[in-house]
Design goal:
Radius of gyration: 17 Å
Order of helices and strands: EHEHHEHHEHHEHHEEH
Distance between the termini: 8 Å
CATH architecture of the largest domain: 3-Layer(aba) Sandwich
Helix content: 40-55%
Largest sheet: 4 strands, parallel
Number of domains: 2
CATH class of the largest domain: Alpha Beta
Number of helices: 10
Shape: globular
Structural class: alpha/beta
Strand content: 5-15%
Strand order of the largest sheet: 5-4-6-7
Length: 229
């Protein structure tokens, strides 16, 4: 079994899910008392979020690249960045390490294509929905990507930063985000990407019929595949 390095804390609410789901995946596949070989580096999200707001992606990239290199030094055979938004600096991180970087958008796109979908809606932070780094990575796999309108993007972004990263799940917010999923579907989205690692906490699958792709679960599954391959 390979050792996976988790670069998390953005937020720790979703990093906790990565840790649990990767361990469960290894246990389920190997049986017995097996668990995952994991090295975890969890950053202070307050510092990263402040850089996001300032638009100082270079400094954020330097911080995360240094932490990824620390994971490599600690014995990680590969790195998983436990956040969608900070894949904005994936190239900086990859350039700082010699071990594989398991890109979340690649794993997500491969799962979507395997399911037979080509036109998808994308939910996430404003950075993920509006900047090119994530959408273009998906499009490179042959996907057509739709995003909500401006007001809906504001809504999803606020739910993430004002509630989910703080561990809060409100029924009103569940309904609002579910309605956005339905709107994307009515506009032609065959499926919707939960493109923020905290959105899984909303459990939208209980409220909508549209196929959902939970990037946290997909990334964790991809990590297990890689560890045991």
């Amino acid at each position: 079994m390979r050792t996976i390095g988790l670069l998390g804390g953005m937020s720790w609410e979703s990093t906790e899910l990565y840790y649990r789901w990767i361990n469960e995946g290894v246990r389920d596949r190997l049986g017995g008392l097996h668990s995952a070989k994991i090295v975890l580096d969890s950053v202070d999200f307050q510092e990263i979020e402040a850089l996001q707001v300032k638009g100082d992606w270079d400094e954020a990239g330097r911080i995360l690249a240094k932490r990824a290199a620390a994971l490599e030094s600690a014995g990680a055979d590969g790195v998983v960045l436990c956040t969608n938004t900070m894949h904005r600096v994936a190239d900086t991180i990859e350039s700082a390490i010699r071990i594989p970087f398991l890109h979340l958008a690649d794993a997500t796109a491969e799962r979507i294509r395997a399911a037979g979908y080509t036109k998808v809606g994308l939910l996430g932070t404003r950075f993920t929905m509006e900047q090119a780094f994530y959408r273009e990575r998906l499009e490179a796999h042959g996907l057509e990507v739709m995003v909500p309108n401006d007001a809906q993007r504001d809504c999803v972004h606020e739910v993430i930063y004002q509630e989910l990263v703080l561990g809060r799940v409100r029924e009103e917010s569940q309904r609002k985000v579910a309605s956005i999923v339905c709107q994307l579907a009515s506009e032609g989205a065959e499926a919707v990407i939960e493109g923020c690692t905290e959105i899984t906490m909303l459990e939208l699958g209980n409220l909508v019929a549209t196929p959902l792709f939970d990037t946290t679960r997909i990334h964790a599954d991809a990590a297990v595949d890689w560890m045991l391959s």
